[in-house]
Amino acid sequence: MVKVKHKFFCSECGYESPKWYGKCPGCGAWNSMVEEVEKTVKTQGMNSGIFHAKEKPQSIINIESGKEPRIQTGIGELNRVLGGGVVPGSLVLVGGDPGIGKSTLLLQTSHEMARSGLRVLYISGEESVRQTKLRAERLGTLSPELFVLCESSMDGIEEAIDEVKPDFVVIDSIQTVYLPEVTSAPGSVSQVRECTARFMRIAKGQGIATVLVGHVTKEGAIAGPRMLEHMVDCVLYFEGERHHSYRLLRAVKNRFGSTNEIGIFEMNESGLAEVANPSELFLSERPLGVAGSTVVASMEGTRPMLVELQALIAATHFPSPRRMATGVDYQRMNLILAVLEKRMGLFLQNQDAYVNLAGGVKLDEPAVDLAIAVSVASSFRDLPTKPYDVFFGEVGLTGEVRAVSRAEQRVKEAAKLGFKRVILPEKSMKGWKGPQEIQLIGVNTVADALAVALD
């Protein structure tokens, strides 16, 4: 017996309702409710679970613990973000803006894994097999163990997986896949949810590492219901500016590793190239002896990274001065400007303030506070800092400089790149000694840091 139901789903958050709303009660989006027809068919075996054998509850003490096996992708930056490689049977979701390089990254990954002896199935619902072959020739990613298929039907994809029996599957993209028994259009909330659930059963039941490519909305979030990100094991975002050649791969969810790691790539004619030393890359075009330019030592996961931070303070011609932040938190910048004005006596009420991180990178840790304060003061007073100084530290509302974690790794990275001095919180210097070739200057307040940097 087939039962037909008419329901409305929010295309932004997946909120379900029996009637239409102009404004979604779940996320507040306007005109996002779409009507879909659901057909419920009574069948047996639909709730059979993921695993072949029925498991019984057991004490957590009696469960054997061990590390998850990993499949090396052949791309070091991707392995870093995933936590050491792909886990067999895991479901990974990769999102990013159109044209940012998601398909290029996954095709190169497929080639490296196929070259290592694994069987890889690359399924594209947006490109024909000839188009995929042309892109593979341009990237030099041809391998006999890499199988390519142009298919968007879920039934056809399952048949191909049963026939090829791959170790690694790429679906490009999940918004193009559809189930014939679901009457809504491909890319709708119901189709994306049901197809993802089917891929999850395949991945867990057969132990196949599966990667899904997801489209993003104009706000940058992955299109479809928010439930999609809850269902998968790992969510990766491929970021980058169109006018920059650098791309950042960032994990926002990872059940098998840390979400603090990032992978850095450079886009060139032959595809994506790994950036092994991002600090040297971001500092390659740094001007020396210019007011408002400083170098900040940041930590992205376990990787120390030195980035140039620039500030420009200029007299405003408007009643309200402009404030603009690129790569750093806007609210954090306003907080530091208030501290400089209140504690240091810098009159910034009639000054426009612009803060920028060079290279298109984004940093959100508090350790960049001290570098922002020094850059703003340097530009306001038109006094350049020393060209071989590095800054890091958290700034409090009373003007104090607080300690940050992993100071030793930041200092070692600065010494490796030839910097002479590091201005850091004094409390971060306890319990370790820095390299002999670099001078460590501990400060307790922003006033101390400015006295050292702008003397």
From TrEMBL:
Domain topic, free-text comment: The middle region has homology to RecA with ATPase motifs including the RadA KNRFG motif, while the C-terminus is homologous to Lon protease.
Similarity-based family: Belongs to the RecA family. RadA subfamily.
Role this protein plays: DNA-dependent ATPase involved in processing of recombination intermediates, plays a role in repairing DNA breaks. Stimulates the branch migration of RecA-mediated strand transfer reactions, allowing the 3' invading strand to extend heteroduplex DNA faster. Binds ssDNA in the presence of ADP but not other nucleotides, has ATPase activity that is stimulated by ssDNA and various branched DNA structures, but inhibited by SSB. Does not have RecA's homology-searching function.
Top-level taxonomic group: Bacteria
PANTHER family: DNA REPAIR PROTEIN RADA (PTHR32472), DNA REPAIR PROTEIN RADA-LIKE PROTEIN (PTHR32472:SF10)
Pfam families: AAA_25 (PF13481), ChlI (PF13541), Zn_ribbon_LapB (PF18073)
Binding-site list for ATP: G96, D97, P98, G99, I100, G101, K102, S103
Keyword line: ATP-binding, DNA damage, DNA repair, DNA-binding, Hydrolase, Metal-binding, Nucleotide-binding, Stress response, Zinc, Zinc-finger
Region (Lon-protease-like) location: 352-455
Native source species: Paenibacillus mellifer
Positions occupied by motif RadA KNRFG motif: 253-257
A single Gene Ontology CC term: cytosol
GO terms under biological process: recombinational repair
Domain RecA family profile span(s) in chain numbering: 67-216
Name of the gene this protein is made from: radA
The protein, known as: DNA repair protein RadA
